[in-house]
Amino acid sequence: MTSEIKQQFTFRISQANPTEMVVILYDMTLQYLADASELASEGDFGAYQENVRRAGKCVNELTRSLRPEYEPAGSLRKLYMYCIRRLAQAEIRRHGELLREVAGIITPLRDAYRQIAPQNTAGPVMRNTQAVYAGLTYGRNTLTENMADQSANRGMLV
Predict the structure, then answer these.
(1) Ramachandran region of residue 20, left (φ > 0), alpha (ψ -120 to 50) or beta?
(2) What is the pLDDT of residues 102-119, one digit of tens each?
(3) pLDDT tens digits for 52-104?
(4) Do 15 and 129 form a contact (C-beta atoms < 8 A)?
(5) Which of 67, 63, 93, 89 has its CA nearest to residue 78?
């Protein structure tokens, strides 16, 4: 995952409500799977395994975030556990088909959560985050993103 993509995820996380956080975890999982597939084709199996592990950590976090009192939690838990098993096999076997299988399970779930995310009227999960305004400043041969309120306690209440 490039540093630019990491910055995009960081910004999305800082502004996300609980449902959007689930969408972000799905997106991160899919990004790690895509990176792993690319690295396998390049023959960089150390980095491949690391990306598969990171995808597994995202799925583990999705599993931990389930609320058992709601109906789909049981079915989602089974799907997530299946994905975790397939990722463990993919890590060992270095088999791209297993990664595509997991991506095929995660993608429709991500799409469904993306559709319902606007219905969640809860505010952002993170409070006291840095305000980011749309717009950039242009300088000679540079593009600079400006942020307001760059205080030392970003994201934390002291």
Answers:
(1) alpha
(2) 999 999 999 999 998 888
(3) 999 999 999 999 999 889 888 889 999 999 999 999 999 888 878 899 999 99
(4) yes
(5) 63
